[in-house]
Structures are given as C-alpha cells and as structure tokens.
C-alpha cells in the first residue's frame, strides 16, 4: 500500500519576514496533493506594487523554495 502524504506546517515569508496569514483578506495559503507531491500555494488579494518582493515557503525537513514577484500596477 502506498504511503499517505501528510502536509506539514510551513512558513511563508516575503523578503525574509514572516507573512501574517491570519489576515485572510490579504493572504490565503493552501495545498493540494498531486500524485506523490504536495504543492503549497500562496494567493495574494488586491495586489499592488507594495507586494513586490521575494516570497518563500519553508518548513521542517522541506527545502526552501523562493520566487521573486513583481507586480505591474
């Protein structure tokens, strides 16, 4: 029987500062399981040029993944 994937607690950062995910009007963190991979996503509502920066996702035993985001407002 295949091993069941279990999502882990992750931290989202912008420019190395933790993002306050309790503000669900601005940010929404989610995940989906595709095959043997867990894909974590961060959605940003009402984006502006102030949202430009390097966003990263990291967690225990999870390699840091980062992406530079530039908003054309």
Main sheet overview: 4 strands, antiparallel
Strand order of the largest sheet: 2-1-5-6
Number of strands: 6
H and E order? EEEEEE
**Classification by helices and strands:** mainly beta
Query: Shape from CA axes?
Result: elongated
Measured distance between first and last alpha carbons:
49 Å
Identify the quaternary structure here. single chain
Rg measurement, Å: 14 Å
**Helical content, roughly?**
under 10%
Q: pLDDT average, as an integer?
A: 89
Strand content: over 45%
Protein name: Ig-like domain-containing protein
Organism: Acrobeloides nanus
Pfam families: I-set
InterPro entries: Ig-like_dom (IPR007110), Ig-like_dom_sf (IPR036179), Ig-like_fold (IPR013783), Ig_I-set (IPR013098)
Fill in the keyword field for this structure.
Ig_I-set, 4-stranded antiparallel beta sheet, Ig-like domain-containing protein, 6 strands, mainly beta, Ig-like_dom_sf, Ig-like_fold, single chain, 73 residues, two-stranded antiparallel ribbon
Notes on the protein architecture:
With 73 residues, the protein is an all-beta fold. Helix content is 0%, strand content 52%. The chain has no helices and 6 strands. It has strands spanning 10-14, 17-18, 27-34, 37-44, 53-59, 62-69. A 4-stranded antiparallel beta sheet has the order 2-1-5-6, with no helix packed on it. Strands 3-4 form a two-stranded antiparallel sheet. 0% of the residues are buried. The model has no long low-confidence stretch (mean pLDDT 89). This is Ig-like domain-containing protein. InterPro entries: Ig-like_dom, Ig-like_dom_sf, Ig-like_fold, Ig_I-set. Residues 1-69 form the Ig-like domain. It holds the Pfam family I-set.
């Amino acid at each position: 029987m295949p091993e069941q994937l279990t999502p882990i607690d992750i931290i989202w950062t912008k420019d190395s500062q933790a993002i306050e995910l309790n503000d669900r009007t601005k940010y929404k963190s989610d995940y989906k399981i595709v095959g043997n991979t867990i894909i974590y996503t961060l959605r940003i509502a009402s984006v502006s040029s102030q949202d430009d920066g390097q966003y990263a996702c990291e967690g225990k035993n999870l390699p840091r993944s980062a992406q530079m985001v530039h908003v054309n407002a």
